[in-house]
Amino acid sequence: MSRVDDLPRRARPQPGTLPPPQALPQSLAGNPALPYPAIGQELSTLRLQIPGVHGCVLGGVDGLLVTHNLQNGADPDDLAALAATMYGLGRQVGLRLGQGDFQQSTVRNAGGYLSVYAINGHALLAVIGTDSINVARLHLHAPTTAARLAELLDGVSPATS
Amino acid sequence: MGNLDIALKNAMDIDGAIGAALVDYTSGMTLGVAGGTGEIDLTVAAAGNTDVVRAKLRTIEMLRLDDEIEDILITLGSQYHLIRPLSNRTGKGLFLYLMVSKSRANLAMARHQLRAIEESLEL
């Protein structure tokens, strides 16, 4: 008998024993009730406050874009998806190590930074910075912006689609 | 990092010292802090003064002076703030930051002692 046969096999689930499908929360993306002008104001304030910020992307934890203020270059939809990927990794680390909720994650490359901040359980703020950005200052200011964005998002009823 | 802890401790032993930090001005992050008070967050001071150092370095470059900063003195109403970029090879991109009380410190002595600390600091 080969060793492969000794390995445990997954039994085919019987009909009726399947867990109920998970009900996912309504996506933030495309919700017309969001206060877009106020959100846009917060994002541009952050960009003006810290020299070296190329732009900000507000996305859901589902990876869908809500809004952004990127001028050129990167695709905001891609960045919203990347931010959710970084959030997913951070959340798993938090779960495995018992360190609680995801707060912030930064990637530094040869030519710049991408920082992702948790706004609340459903939304993320991604900030793209040049290599010369004062990243300590970004880490001081961005959580405050994230908290204000959380307040703006809190008062919104979920989209009905 | 024993060397860094000793350097920061020595900086806090300077008469009138309120807080000291070793800061990376490429990112604004601190490598170590000592002292500080409830109201004074040295990480905020480090991030802010990173912009001071960068502005001065850029000015020197724009003026084509081909020189470097030995130290920067900022005089407040009640405090002196001393910024001293590290000049040795291992300390490239770092500066020492020292806050001293104006009434309790001897500025010339503080500056001299900070130079000695910087020279002995090997990372």
UniProtKB/TrEMBL annotation, chain A:
<feature type="domain" description="Roadblock/LAMTOR2">
    <location>
        <begin position="40"/>
        <end position="129"/>
    </location>
</feature>
<protein>
    <recommendedName>
        <fullName>Roadblock/LAMTOR2 domain-containing protein</fullName>
    </recommendedName>
</protein>
<feature type="region of interest" description="Disordered">
    <location>
        <begin position="1"/>
        <end position="30"/>
    </location>
</feature>
<dbReference type="Pfam" id="PF03259">
    <property type="entry name" value="Robl_LC7"/>
</dbReference>
<dbReference type="InterPro" id="IPR004942">
    <property type="entry name" value="Roadblock/LAMTOR2_dom"/>
</dbReference>
TrEMBL record, chain B:
<protein>
    <recommendedName>
        <fullName>Roadblock/LAMTOR2 domain-containing protein</fullName>
    </recommendedName>
</protein>
